[in-house]
Structure formats: structure tokens, C-alpha cells
Amino acid sequence: MTVLSRLRLLNFRNHAALDLHLDGGPVCLFGANGAGKTNILEALSLLGPGRGLRSAPLGDLSRHGGADPWTIAATLQNDQKIGVGLEADGRSAKRRVRIDGAPATTGDLAERIRIVWLTPAMDGVFRGGASDRRRFFDRQVMAHMPDHGRLSAEYERAMRERNALLERDRVDPAWADALEARMALAGAEIIVNRQLVLDRLQASVNERPDGFFPKADLVLEGALEPLAREGRSVADVESELRATFMSGRPRDRAAGRALSGPHRTDLGVVHRPSGAPAAQASTGQQKALLIGLILANARALGDTGSGPVPLILLDEAAAHLDTRRRAALFDELSSLGGQAWLTGTEAALFEAFADRAQLIEVCERPEDGDHGRY
After folding, report:
1. Please, are residues 162 and 180 in contact by the beta-carbon 8 Å criterion?
2. For 109-140, how does the pLDDT look when each residue is reduced to its tens digit (9 = 90+)?
3. Which pTM was predicted?
4. Which of 49, 171, 230, 297 has a CA 20 to 30 Å removed from the CA of 332?
5. Regarding beta strands 276-277 and 311-314, do their DSSP bridges make them parallel or antiparallel, or are they unpaired?
6. Which domains does the chain have, with CATH numbers?
7. SS3 of residue 341 by DSSP
């Protein structure tokens, strides 16, 4: 399981310096709006692969006015030390990773830490467009398969190059074939990986007892997704994708973009108790559905052995729940065995945790004009 015993930040967002010693249980961060609670969760999210819970450019994370680049240092409960920081060479910003003092990669991080999160920005995922749901689900896939991010980036690069090629007066068929082969290779793995994780997630949802967080029925919607649902191989899906891209060149050229492929997939979600699409559920029902999916995915990670029980980051989730739902959430988080981090404006929001959680107040510490937090 993923449990931190210490977290230190330097020059990260509004934190000039922060040093938290942790007891291994759930961590509840409370304090006024703007104190820097979400910034701490964002720092935690950067301990795993991907761009973090805000998807912010690395260069934007340094504290305003700070002279030194930001760094994040975490100690796991097994005493392993992980460091992540900004490495800027004047032209680009890169993430520097160290494990026990030795240079490492984001792939090395993924072997040690998995992370799932829920933020207020995700509350509209069911009411938004397909791209919102796709991003949400791809984040869940990455928790199981960190390589999913690299595959998505490769697919997007090849698709952009193909779009540019199709805009030309004359399209070189051999060049188009090569780009479509790259798209199909990455795209087939993306499609199959998504279906594999959806099956794990649906099984975890089904196994959860009925309660305050309603169950959802999930399906991936797209032209080639049925092949993955049927259990077809990556090679079969790749072959179908290549044929789809080739036959679709005239249509894609007229549209100025690729009209088929995993970049068009949608996540269908049904609120099982009512049988209605999640988009038609109330705001409270949608929030409960999202929390239920995050909890189910955290449990699926531990149950399937595809990774350690993850860090669970819940930003302002408790504030939108009634007293009974908050108590149910805290009970389930306590039973998962990983380490949950929650934020809220008041300590009273976390009373149902009783002595099972560590409460930490995050507040402003003016010091010679420096607005660090501690």
C-alpha cells in the first residue's frame, strides 16, 4: 500500500517551506480558502506519473517570487525516499526524479506510488462533453497502467502529423500509411487497456455493498470499442484501426481532423438505482456517483494486484456531503488500507473520523512579507 510518513515542500505554489510528519492514517487538511490545502494535494499528485491534478505546466508551480525551483520530498512508510523537482535548462522545464538519492524516472515512481483523486473541477464530468469523461476515465486507467499516458501522447503526436499531412494539396500515401500505422499501434493498446480497466472497475463497483454511494453501470462507447468488449486481441484492433484510418482519409481531410479513433471514445455512465444516465441525475447523485467510482477504483487496484493500494486525494469532497454520507465515506476510506488525504475549510467536517485521522491546520504564516504556509 502507498503510505507516506513525511512530506516536505520547498518553493511549491504558495508554500515557501512545509514539513509534515505523518502517522500513517488518513490526513485531513483544514483551513481558510486560499491557505494552500489544494496545493498540497497537487504536490502529492506529482509523486506519480502524469501532469498532476491541475495539469499545470511544471514551470508554473514555483512559488511567486521564490529564487529556487520547487521540490517535493516524500518518505514512504518503508523508509524509501522519493524526491521530485523542477529542472529548468532555460529552454524547457522538466521533472527531476530521485529515489533514495539516485536518479530515477517517472516509470520508477509508478512502480512505487499509485494515486487517484477527485477535485471540484471534476464535478461536471457527467454534464460535460465526451472529452471530459474521457480524461476522467484515462486518469483511472493510468492508475492501473502508467504506460497509458505515454501511449496517449504517441497517438496524439501521430494524429497531429496526419492531420497536417491531410491538409496538403497532395497526400503522399506512403507517408499517410506510416502515420496511420503509428496511430493504430498506440490506439489499439489504448482501446484494449481502457476496456480491461473498465472491467476491473465495474467488477469492483458490483462488489461494493449498496449504501450511500450509488452503483454505476459503465460502458465505453466508440466505433471499435465493441471489439475490445468481445475480447479481441490488440493485433485485431490494430488491424481494424488501420483500415478505418485509411478508408476515412477523404472524410477526415474534408473535416480537417480525424473523425474515428480512441480520441473520440466516450464513457457511458448509468445511475443504477434509477436506471437513468448520470447526466440526468441530480447534482448530489452525480457527486455520490463520482465518489463511489473513485473508491471502487482504489479498491480495484489493491484487489487485482495491478498496483499498490493508492493514495486517495479528495479535495473539498466532504463539504458537499451530509453527515451520514461523510461518516460512510470516512468508514470506507479507513477500510481501504491506503492513505487518504482530504481537504475542507473546517475541522468539524472530519468529526466522524474520530481518532482514525490526523488533522492538520493549514494557515497563513506572514514572515517579512513572505506569504508561505505551514
Report:
1. yes
2. 888 888 999 999 999 999 999 999 999 999 99
3. 0.91
4. 49
5. unpaired
6. 1-114+308-374 (3.40.50.300), 136-305 (1.20.1050.90)
7. strand
